[in-house]
Amino acid sequence: MRPNILFIMTDEQRFDTLGTVNSAVRTPHLDQLAREGISFTRAYTTNPSCVPARAAIITGRYPSKCGAPTYITHLPPHEVTFTSLLQQQGYYTAVLGKQHFGDSLIDRGYDHADIIDLHGPGDWDIEGESETSYMKFLKAAGFTRTSQLSERVNRYSQRWIAEARYHIDDYIGELGKSWLRHQRPKGQPWYCCLSFPGPHMPFDGAGLPQETGYRLEDIDLPLTEESDLDSKPPHFRQQLVTGQGNPGGAMANGMTKQELRETRLSYYANMSLIDQKIGEVITELKAAGEYDNTLILFTSDHGEYMGDFGMMGKGQYLSEVLMRVPFLIKPPVSGFTGRTEEAFVSNLDIAATCLSAAGAQVPGNMDSVDLSPFWKSGAKRPVKDIVYLEAGDLRAVRNESWKLVYYRGRPYGELYHLKEDPWERHNLWENASASGVKEQLKSLLMDELLALGERSHMPWNDKAPQI
Q1: b vs e for 116-148, b when ≥16 Cβ sit within 10 Å of the residue's Cβ?
Q2: Residue-wise DSSP of 265-323
Q3: What pLDDT is attached to residue 245?
Q4: Are residues 339 and 421 in the same domain?
Q5: Residue 263 is part of which domain span?
Q6: Domain of life, per the record (predicted)?
């Protein structure tokens, strides 16, 4: 029997905002899911921005290949979503929450869609927002302005002052429960994407009931400092000061420890709300008798600076705190014994993993890797020696110990010894003693770029000599 597939996603969630990774964060339901599945501790996204990262996930192709490499690009209509391929395999497909297709005319591949590309009520006058089911829900409850829902705490965070059930992430969770209870197809395998807009800014988790699980003095502070930017390329500090050129992008200006703790508390409390709703959705799945036969995948599109280097948000950077993401898989296997896995994986691999579970062939032009061998007995696991990353004019490669970020047409770059410097505080690009490693990583990056060319695996000619 082919399994059902539940793909749960958050937005802008750091890799270290799970209780299994960071004791300062309370996510008991996701922690339980990790104990019943595979927790990938070195998972990466392809891109640090929502649109390209999500485009890569839905197509299984890197942003530079699928035609959506930046925040202001959208998938061209000739690209193919893995959800449309699931439809061809007889799956009923549904999406609830954020997607970020923008103006793309691509066949999205959903039989049922309740797409809500918001992070909260925002500006009530923005054209189109009032048409989402969430905005209709708020208006039906009598809300007419944002100030009825939240109030500012500091420059970066807000306090939720309305009932928790009106928060967008609570609403998305309720959509998931309702779909499983009333709309889930019977006698047909299904795929459902439940995509939470949080904990992305406006960081409005303060004031939610989950805030009571935290004490301000216990909130962890960054292990990096603004002075660490001195050795990094100039656009780090330029964006730090101006905050321009990237909606919701990286910016901060002299954050105090009070502001950092308040903002992180709000971020964590929002994550705890999402965790609670995920727990309720899984309870609903178990009540329906579908848990054992459902493949559950959980990840985020990218991370968040959240005060590291004095910065907030994200932008055209390939920092670890932006590129590493949480990634859990609960196999469709009864009584599976969970474990952690240190192999390099990517949220790009979701497409091939879902297609494989559905019994479908993975298209040859996909960069996605099937992760099912990690739970199938006797199967050879796809072990990667490197991870490849993109962001506009930036390309990066990391191996077990080192990471190189190449800047197109610039004389500078980034080089970090991650074994000794996991938080990337010391850029060794200009360090003479690391020049040999830099050249080796440049060669690895060139090899990866050549391999990513369309049909690059094809031989030169029949009987041509091997180079």
Answers
A1: bbbbbbeeeeeeebeebebbebbeeeebeebee
A2: HHHHHHHHHHHHHHHHHHHHHHHTT-STTEEEEEEES----TTGGG--SB-S---HHHH
A3: 45
A4: no
A5: 4-381
A6: Bacteria
Residue 191 confidence (pLDDT):
98
Residues 228 and 426: their CA atoms lie apart, in Å, by 7
Dist. CA 52–CA 466, nearest whole Å = 36
Q: Does residue 290 sit in the same domain as residue 418?
A: no
Q: Are residues 450 and 320 in the same domain?
A: no
Residue 460 maps to a domain: no
Q: Which residue shows structure tokens 């918001």?
A: 118
- Beta strands per DSSP E along 51-115: 92-97, 112-115
* 370 to 60, 280, 350, 353, 358: CA distances (angstroms): 10, 28, 8, 4, 12
| Tokens, residue 455 | 């049909």
Q: Could you tell me the two tokens for 247?
A: 């909606």
Find residue 6's DSSP bridge partners.
192, 296
Is residue 149 within 8 Å of 161, Cβ to Cβ?
yes
- Residue type for position 197: P
What band does 126 get if pLDDT is binned at 50, 70 and 90?
very low
**Per-residue pLDDT tens for 288-345?**
999 999 999 999 999 999 999 999 999 999 999 999 999 999 999 999 999 999 999 9
Q: 43 φ, ψ to 5°?
A: -100, 145
Residue 165: both structure tokens together: 């059930």
Give the chain's domain count. Answer: 2
Condensed to tens digits (0 to 9), the pLDDT of residues 425-467 reads: 999 999 999 999 999 999 999 999 999 998 888 888 988 888 8
pTM, to two decimals: 0.95
